[in-house]
Write a structure and sequence with these properties.
719 residues, disordered C terminus, 4-stranded antiparallel sheet, 24 helices, 13% strand, single chain, alpha/beta, disordered N terminus, 45% helix, 10-stranded mixed sheet
Length: 719
């Protein structure tokens, strides 16, 4: 029995396997779809999903909406729209404050909150006056209608009468009675034309008026930036931002001092306890910062530039000094750009009646960084001012001398070793005025100082109680004198820093004893070094001031270690930009407690203005004859003088030679020592030698030297 065939869909009739009857092959299925190309044996590719039109549209809209150009356009639209809204709000507030007492009440509350009772009282008085005036205006409004009616009636009557009078005049003049109404008709015609003009213009005014008002509001809003911050245009770095406690603490935290940063992080008040009150100080603010334990004040001082940048300031706009309290630094932070603004003219120019008092007065030298007047006492104080070239040193020193010149008691002896006329106005004011940079001028300046020493000695030896007039010696460009290589006939150098240097020793003697008898020395020098400004000379000055310098070591030379360690930094002043700004270390000027120096922006007095002040000073005096060279008497020849005192004696003890030279000329040889005599004779062949164990000078040897010199030409005479 055979299995019946099975009908399989798509394959035709299929017989059972045991069915041995022949089978017909299945027919190929018929399809209307084109056969696909033969596939490779590799893995078939994944089908790409089809993106719907809605998704593509959404993506396109999102891209368009988030595009930078779209965002910029949106910000632009919102910004300028908010300018109009904000401008309207500002105008409304101004109108409201102009009609009400809200402004006065706001300022009164602010003054009370700040604890300024004087200011609060002043605003309360202003408020009372405003209310009284407003009440009077309201009372006047009650009678305004009656006054307006009376005024209108009076005006109408006067106008009608005037027109009638004018018509009568015209009628009489023209002999025409009809002209009596001509002025009235002319006025009516004028009124008609005014109405016509208004009718024509009124339409455009109505159309343009609202747009003009919107434009005005937009202008007010734009000027005040009355729009949200997120739509305002990007601004540059926040330079000159207000100094707030959070700004100061953040700037200190980010200095790179690990203990300071950790301490600020651990403080519960985010570091606010470190700060004292922020006080307005001149063209900036001042704040004391008490550093946490483990942070030294010099660590903050060394990071001045970084601190300034953290505060959005330039380096020269931040000053760090040591306050009186322990572990405390005082920050003075200038308003951005304020130090680049010039200060006002000197009171010596603005007040032509100003006089000086050397003993009790103080010179108006300039302004400190707080904007207060910097007044300095010059009484019995030697002075040194230094700095780089062309920074205003001469002008700063000359300003002090000009103030002193207004005291007729003060005598000046001036040596200007630059010699370009900066001190020319002292001709007729100073008793000695030397001007020039040559070695001859240095010799004269040295002799001027030596004359000051002689006058000082005379005063010291005067009877007790003697009153002396002030005598001021001024040497500008003193480095020229210290560097002078000239040697005198006694082989003593004029320049140098050794005990044999004449200029150096004269300056030292004046520094040692001059102030007690009012003999003072003012020196100006540039670019200080140990060679052109010896240590003993710079430390002998009571008032030391410095303009811009190049290095900290120069700052220490100029002001001393104490001032620099206390925060004085003339080396951080900007050459050229801070011209005329000096850092002063002196007890003659008021320096805040805890500071060792004060930064002063000096008043600039030009050469022409200085001449005017000098003329006023000359008018206070009876007349001064100015010497332009120092007269030290007849030049002497030391070898000839030694030969003279030897006489006919073959050998004379050196001690006796010195005594005889002193008797011959006290002025020339009174201060000579054995060393001076030896220098004169060394190298000549007539040097002192021992005879019977004592030093003597031989006449025969000296005569031979003089004979040879007369033959070859005298070097001493040539000098």
């Amino acid at each position: 029995m055979t299995e019946p065939a099975v009908q399989v869909p798509g394959m035709g009739t299929v017989h059972h396997l045991d069915d041995h009857r022949p089978t017909t092959p299945p027919a190929e299925p018929v399809t209307l779809v084109k056969d696909p190309p033969p596939e490779s044996t590799s893995t078939p590719p994944t089908a790409v999903p089809q993106v719907s039109r809605v998704v593509r549209t959404g993506r396109a809209l999102r891209t368009a909406a988030t595009h930078e150009r779209t965002r910029a356009t949106g910000r632009f639209t919102v910004r300028h729209g908010m300018y109009v809204v904000g401008g309207g709000r500002i105008v409304a507030r101004r109108a409201w404050e102009g009609r009400t007492a809200s402004r006065y009440e706001r300022m009164l509350r602010a003054a009370e909150a700040a604890g300024n009772l004087d200011l609060a009282t002043e605003w309360e008085e202003r408020l009372s006056r405003f209310r009284a005036a407003r009440h009077q205006r309201r009372m006047d409004l009650l009678s305004a209608p009656v006054k307006a009616a009376k005024g209108a009636a009076a005006g109408l009557g006067i106008t009608a009468g005037g027109l009638l009078l004018l018509g009568i005049i015209l009628a009489v003049a023209n002999e025409n009675f009809a002209d009596l109404a001509t002025p009235t008709l002319a006025l009516i015609e004028l009124i008609r034309w005014i109405v016509v003009v208004i009718t024509v213009v009124w339409g455009p005014l109505v159309v343009l008026g609202p747009w003009a008002a919107l434009l005005a509001l937009w202008g007010v809003g734009r000027h005040q930036q009355a729009a949200p911050q997120w739509v305002l245009p990007a601004r540059p770095a926040d330079v000159g931002a207000p100094v707030t406690p959070s700004v100061v603490v953040t700037a200190l935290r980010d200095l790179g001092i690990a203990p300071l940063r950790q301490a600020v992080k651990e403080m519960g008040d985010a570091g606010a306890a470190m700060l004292g009150p922020i006080r307005i100080a001149g063209c900036g603010v001042e704040v004391d910062v008490t550093l946490p334990s483990g942070v030294a004040t010099d660590e903050v001082q060394k990071r001045r530039r970084k601190l300034a940048e953290n505060l959005s300031r330039h380096e020269h706009e931040v000053f760090i000094t040591i306050a009186q309290a322990a572990r405390t630094v005082r920050l003075w932070i200038a308003d951005s750009g304020a130090l680049d603004e010039p200060i006002g003219p000197s009171p010596l120019m603005t007040d032509t009646t100003l006089t000086a008092d050397y003993t009790k007065g103080r010179s108006p030298w300039g302004q400190d960084l707080r904007g207060d007047a910097a007044l300095i006492s010059l009484y019995q104080r030697h002075m040194l001012i230094t700095g780089l070239s062309n920074q205003g040193k001469t002008a700063a020193l000359r300003a002090l001398a000009l103030w002193l010149a207004l005291d007729p008691r003060v005598e000046f002896r001036v040596a200007d070793l630059k010699g370009v006329g900066d001190w020319g106005m002292f001709d007729g004011l100073a008793t000695v005025l030397i001007q020039g940079p040559t070695d001859d001028h240095v010799i004269e300046a040295t002799e001027m100082l030596e004359d000051l020493v002689k006058e000082m000695d005379r005063r010291i030896q005067a009877p007790p109680g003697t009153v002396f007039t002030p005598l001021i010696g001024i040497v500008d460009e003193a480095q020229v004198a210290f560097m002078c290589p000239v040697v005198d006939s006694a082989k003593r150098p004029y320049g140098g820093s050794k005990a044999t240097a004449r200029y150096f020793m004269a300056a030292r003697k004046i520094h040692n004893q001059g102030r007690a008898v009012d003999v003072l020395l003012y020196q100006g020098t540039q670019d200080p070094t140990d060679q052109n400004l010896p240590k003993l000379v710079r430390e002998g000055a009571h008032t030391r001031a410095s303009l811009a310098l190049g290095t900290e070591s120069q700052a220490r030379m100029a002001l001393g270690d104490k001032a620099v360690d206390g925060g004085a930094a003339p080396n951080l002043l900007r050459p050229g930009l801070d011209k005329g700004t000096v850092v002063v270390a002196s007890d003659g000027i008021k320096i805040p407690a805890g500071q060792a120096a004060l930064t002063v922006r000096t008043h600039y007095i030009s050469t022409d203005d200085a001449a005017q002040i000098a003329d006023r000073a000359k008018a206070l005096r009876d007349g001064v004859t100015t010497l332009h060279t120092v007269d030290n008497g007849t030049d002497r020849d030391p070898l000839m003088d030694v030969m003279t005192v030897l006489g006919d004696t073959s050998r004379v003890l050196t001690t006796d030679v010195l005594k005889r030279l002193t008797a011959l000329s006290e002025e020339a040889y009174g201060e000579w020592s054995h060393l001076d005599l030896k220098r004169v004779l060394d190298g000549t062949g007539a040097e002192p030698y021992k005879s019977d164990g004592r030093m003597v000078v031989g006449r025969e040897r000296l005569a031979r030297v003089l004979a040879n010199r007369d033959t070859e030409g005298s070097a001493s005479a040539a000098e």
